[in-house]
Amino acid sequence: MDIPRAVANFRFFATAILHESSEAHVTDARALNYTLRHPMGVAGLISPWNLPLYLLSWKIAPAIAAGNTCVAKPSELTPLTSNRLAELSLEAGLPPGVMNIVHGYGAKAGAAICEHPDVPLISFTGGTVTGAKVAAAAAPLFKKLSLELGGKNPNLIFADADLDDAIATSIQSSFANQGEICLCGSRIFVERAIYDTFVERFVAATRKLRIGDPSAPDTDVGALISEAHLQKVTGYLDLAKEEGGTIVTGGNRVDRDGFFLEPAVITGLGCECRVLQEEIFGPVVTITPFDGDDEAIRSANSTRYGLSATVWTRDLQRAHRVAAAMHAGTVWINCWLLRDLRVPFGGMKESGVGREGGLESLHFFTEAKNVCVKLA
Questions:
Q1: DSSP state of 182
Q2: What is the pTM of this model?
Q3: Angle (nearest 5°) at CA 356 between 352 and 359
Q4: CA angle 62-65-69, nearest 5°?
Q5: Residue 357 above 90 pLDDT?
Q6: pLDDT category of residue 311 using cuts at 50, 70 and 90
Q7: Do the strands 352-353 and 144-148 form a parallel or antiparallel pair, or are they unpaired?
Q8: Is-contact 141 117, C-beta < 8 A?
Q9: Axis-axis angle for helices 292-300, 316-325 (nearest 10)
Q10: Active-site positions?
Q11: Domains of the chain, CATH where assigned
Q12: pLDDT at 86 over 90
């Protein structure tokens, strides 16, 4: 995923900037008002470890296309990808000083970028707690800010859904990249009429996932990022048991070098439980029954996050009605992670502020100026 999507980002914004347009308004036949957009200067870009090339390129490409230079800080857990991107950019002819990579810890290097008076805008992707610190540092300097933060995304399966497609795609949306994707559907809600059937088939599909070296072509699930993160994820499995849940499959550490964990499926927990409220960011999914559209919507909207949601139904009217009621920046109907770079992307509530993608990104990296010309 990482390299093809990064390529798409650079190609999209390289051409999108050629088609960026402005607006002009004739004001009561007395004046002409039009809008100019200028680069902001230095863009501060902070990206996470889970998709180190894709997410960084989604910031760098529009920042440079809009005419800015950038200072980017990748996660200290994945520094080599961004370093190689910078080297390749020089080989491709990008002038020195346009793309700058700063390595270090967030509390030091990241904070320095956020607090620097000559960096007028910050684009941050990462956890909600860190995002709050970024916002607190940027606010006194009145910086332009875009925050793409955590997610606890619901996946709603209605009784009329295409179960074959819903289960196959839900397996992917739950466990892709070991669940270390902010868009993963970690909460699955299933209409009660098909709940038992769905759980049985989903668990069977989960057990077939192959755990191993991520560079091997037949591997479905690789290792988690670190020992500390593995301990965090397994801590939530322990919490699930304390809250009365049942781990129906998985959740055991794999006996091999690395931080490998079997994908886990949990049942028996309600929306009020912490396991359904807090972002786990690992191969852990809960499955909960619901009765009717209203309960499905309430369950989906029951967390403080609002990044994305997925709805599975053959009823077109229901699909539109439920999607409109979702507190989520992106809602997929009968699909997942189907992207169009022209549309805005971002979250609601504690999943962030601001939007990336399309003209939203290009406009974020510019400053608008109105010009009013009196007509003779």
A1: T
A2: 0.94
A3: 140
A4: 90
A5: no
A6: very high
A7: antiparallel
A8: yes
A9: 40
A10: 148, 182
A11: 2-149+351-374 (3.40.605.10), 154-333 (3.40.309.10)
A12: yes
